[in-house]
């Protein structure tokens, strides 16, 4: 492999020198440009493996250059150098496609890491870059293909990612994929369910604590941030973070360092933040229960996982893959298969609980039949057509009739079980989620 080349764009001679010396020690060749115009020329004339650019230059900004690179040299990784405390610029650049940033004064250690991770990605000969990892994300519909492409592209970025999507669509799976397809795949992936940690323990869980810092703290304890050092921290159900933790999290993200409970000093941590929620965080911000500034930091890159009803063509593939998993859990020698009418039944269901619901439906079917072929009747899902098929007056009339009938049956079941939804759902042969969804939709209180 030839010596990697980096273009350093900065109007300050001292910074250019510092970077040049640091990179030379890593066996990396540098070339310098003192302003945006000059950088554009060099990029047009020569081949580079990485571009590092300052933000403020006499004839333009680093943002301009990032934009230029995205248009004219889209395969070239670019990172920005920002003034201390001015991470808004960094966020802006990462939204535009920069993969990372360093702040001034430039920390040599950080700089080295950044360059290493950028260049290892760009060297196909490197043993650290295996063939694209096997994807766990099943699906060939346009939405899923697009999602896979996005994940691949995000692999080189260190920017925080915010994943949205309805319950059960696969947000956690996507978070894991972002980790395992990226430069941090050799580091840990640490999932945190923000809704499951009691508010008063949250700080110690996330940042760790020193012995004696509070009653019961008999030993030093590492927090989840430290556990994720060099890897990815997945903040699941991030909307559930209490406000006092939101402030602390924001600080940790901005400073890239944390302070364990009871500690005097901060410790630097190298963690990529991926967060997810099925709530509408923007709405939470408007309601005043989620901090705008934290939302802005988390949501540098947004990834949306489409609901299952928008990718019904994937149902057979998904079902087969889920059945293989179920067979393994049940110790079956071979995964059961679906009859054509079973597939049809599934494709006629709207799946408010998305892929998780599909998994549950299949698992229940496997548990309830001795057969290795699952029929439509084994599935116990309602055969109602999806909403999009209800066009025209006739269909509307029919739908109203069906809804009336359904409302009546659900009410009967609820009354018979004294409004115990779990039991009512059981009686009706639907999942709790399904029942909840249906009652809401039918306006049953
Ligand atoms: N495209 C897919 N291919 C294969 N399995 C999938 C896919 N999408 C989701 N799954 C599986 O469906 C289940 C639910 O996915 P996951 O837990 O990631 O959903 P989620 O969006 O995080 O849900 P929630 O909002 O309830 O936390 C998991 O078992 C996951 O492996
Ligand atoms: Mg989840």
Automatic annotation (TrEMBL):
Domain Response regulatory span(s) in chain numbering: 5-119
Official protein name in the record: Sigma-54-dependent Fis family transcriptional regulator
Keywords: ATP-binding, DNA-binding, Nucleotide-binding, Phosphoprotein, Transcription, Transcription regulation
Pfam families xrefs: AAA_lid_14 (PF25601), HTH_8 (PF02954), Response_reg (PF00072), Sigma54_activat (PF00158)
Domain Sigma-54 factor interaction as annotated: residue spans: 137-367
InterPro entries from the UniProt entry: AAA+_ATPase (IPR003593), AAA_lid_NorR (IPR058031), CheY-like_superfamily (IPR011006), Homeodomain-like_sf (IPR009057), HTH_Fis (IPR002197), P-loop_NTPase (IPR027417), Sig_transdc_resp-reg_receiver (IPR001789), Sigma_54_int (IPR002078)
Biological processes per GO annotation: phosphorelay signal transduction system; regulation of DNA-templated transcription
Coiled-coil positions: none
Record-linked SMART domains: AAA, REC
GO molecular function: ATP binding; sequence-specific DNA binding
Region span, Disordered: 377-396
Organism whose genome encodes this protein: Abyssibacter profundi
Sites bearing 4-aspartylphosphate, chain numbering: 54
């Amino acid at each position: 492999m030839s010596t990697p080349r980096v273009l350093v764009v900065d109007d300050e001679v001292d910074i250019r020198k510092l970077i040049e010396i640091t990179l030379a020690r890593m066996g990396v060749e540098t070339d310098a440009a003192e302003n945006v115009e000059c950088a554009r020329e060099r990029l047009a004339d020569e081949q580079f493996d990485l571009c590092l650019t300052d933000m403020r230059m006499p004839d333009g900004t680093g943002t301009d250059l990032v934009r230029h690179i995205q248009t004219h040299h889209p395969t070239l990784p670019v990172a920005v150098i920002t003034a201390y405390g001015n991470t808004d610029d960094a966020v802006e650049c990462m939204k535009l496609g920069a993969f990372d940033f360093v702040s001034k004064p430039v920390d040599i250690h950080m700089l080295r890491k950044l360059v290493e991770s950028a260049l290892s990605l760009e060297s196909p000969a490197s043993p650290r870059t295996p063939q694209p990892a096997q994807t766990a994300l099943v699906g060939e519909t346009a939405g899923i293909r697009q999602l896979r492409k996005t994940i691949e592209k995000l692999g080189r970025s260190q920017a925080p990612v915010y994943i949205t999507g309805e319950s059960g669509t696969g947000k956690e799976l996507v978070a894991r994929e972002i980790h395992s397809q990226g430069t941090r795949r050799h580091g840990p992936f640490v999932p945190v369910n923000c809704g499951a940690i009691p508010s008063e323990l949250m700080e110690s869980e996330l940042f760790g604590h020193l012995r004696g810092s509070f009653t019961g703290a008999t030993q030093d304890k590492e927090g989840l941030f430290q556990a994720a050092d060099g890897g990815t921290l997945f903040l699941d159900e991030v909307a559930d973070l209490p406000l006092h933790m939101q402030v602390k999290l924001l600080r940790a993200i901005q400073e890239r360092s944390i302070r364990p409970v009871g500690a005097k000093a901060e410790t630097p941590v190298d963690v990529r933040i991926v967060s997810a929620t099925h709530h509408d965080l923007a709405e939470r911000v408007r309601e005043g229960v989620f901090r705008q500034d934290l939302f802005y930091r988390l949501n540098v890159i947004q990834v949306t996982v489409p609901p299952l009803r928008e990718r019904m063509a994937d149902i057979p593939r998904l079902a087969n893959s889920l059945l293989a998993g179920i067979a393994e859990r049940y110790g079956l020698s071979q995964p059961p298969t679906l009859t054509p009418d079973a597939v049809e039944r599934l494709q006629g269901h709207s799946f408010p609980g998305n892929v998780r619901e599909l998994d549950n439906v299949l698992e229940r079917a496997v548990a309830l039949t001795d057969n290795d072929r699952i029929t439509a009747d084994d599935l116990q899902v309602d055969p109602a057509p999806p909403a999009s098929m209800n066009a025209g007056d006739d269909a509307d009339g029919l739908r109203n009739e069906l809804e009336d009938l359904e409302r009546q049956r659900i009410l009967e079941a609820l009354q018979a079980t004294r409004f115990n939804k779990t039991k009512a759902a059981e009686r009706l042969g639907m999942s709790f989620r399904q029942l909840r969804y249906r009652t809401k939709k039918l306006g049953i209180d």
